[in-house]
## 1
Amino acid sequence: MRRRTLLAASGLAASSPAWPRGERAAKTLRITIPAAETSFDAVQNNTDLYSNTVCAHIFEAPLAFDYLARPVQLVAKTALALPEISADYRTLIFRIRPGIYFADDPAFKG
């Protein structure tokens, strides 16, 4: 019985069509999700699991928690290091790693 099952499975695998791979554009993110997305606005989108999953791959925070460290610590992800804090504790300066891009928009003054 096992031999027949193995032969049948290998026969099906051998007879399946080989799908050609199309040309992929550089810097193109492709994610398959089982439902339609609702929004890619990372600030306002907090109820749709699939849109949040895509947003997590697009928008990466400058810092993240290292949950395995004891005590838990912040580690740099897109930032070069932890932020520089001004003397009056009102300004945080993040230095971003080279090669990371963002949309040039009037909202980002400076």
## 2
Amino acid sequence: MSLGIMEEEDLAEYFRLQYGERLLQLRQKFPNVEEQSESPSIRLLEKKKEAKIMHQAMEHKKQTFQRRMETLNLRWEELGVKEEQLKAHIHKFEQFIQENDQKRIRALKKANKERELKRQRLRELAKAKQEMNALRLEHQRLCVKLQDYAYLEKVVENSEVFRSEVVGLRWLHQALGSQLFSDPSPLAPQFEEIHEVIARYKTLESRWAHIQNTAAKKTLLLGTIKMATLNLFQIVSRQLKETTQESLEDTHKQLDLIQQFIQDLSDIWAEVKKKEQQQFRV
């Protein structure tokens, strides 16, 4: 009994596997008897119903598509706005970078210019220091020359006294000489005194000639000193870029101004060296 049931089940499974798909295809090809029994009006209503359902489905899909398109359009507009904002940010950033580059270039140019100005000022200060040392030496030399000139002025003042004394002795020498040649006996006791007077006369005459010669040399030297002092004074005036009311003949005041200029340069140089030492320590 059970064996028969199993054989029937196996046979049914066999036919189902062998002919199931074919039977399904044949069923799809041939219309159902119930469907054939339906009237055309019923089929038309069903077709309309299916068409309505299809139309509703299409409308639903259309609305869904429109909503999606609207969403996409909004998204596209948002992306456009963000793109413009991004372009604006990029433009600002590029402008910021460009401005920073320009500032950096200006800063570099300014730093280079300041370094060049500093080097130029150091060169000018070094040159001024050399000129200051030269001016100091020239000032010392001129001061010594002026002292000699002051002594010369005193000598010239006293030269008139020497000259009058020399003239008197010359006249006395001539008178005594003529008297000795005519009659030497009355002057014999004063012979030694006469010789002393003659010797003094010759000494004073020699000194007078030396004074005249020295005075000529000192006068020439004095003119040279005054010209050198005037040249230095004019150089200092050009450096100071100002006009002065000092007389061109007042050598002492010119030397005072030169000395003051040298002192100012010395103070400036000392201040520069002090700042350099402070920067080096920092």
## 3
Amino acid sequence: QIGADVISYNAAISACNAGGMWQQAVDLLMSLDECMIQADRISYNAAISACEKNQEWLLALRLLLQAGER
């Protein structure tokens, strides 16, 4: 069995971003910690972009600050 990794999560987050599914993109980003997978710059960028496209400015800013802490 092959487990998920940051690359597969990034692909899923990016797909949600492209599909206008910002909430799912953020949910996937948050679930990385639960799966003991380290989110990377690409993970945060895709989720922040999804928030920005849907004018979720405060959430985008919160994610940006969270990314800077890592």
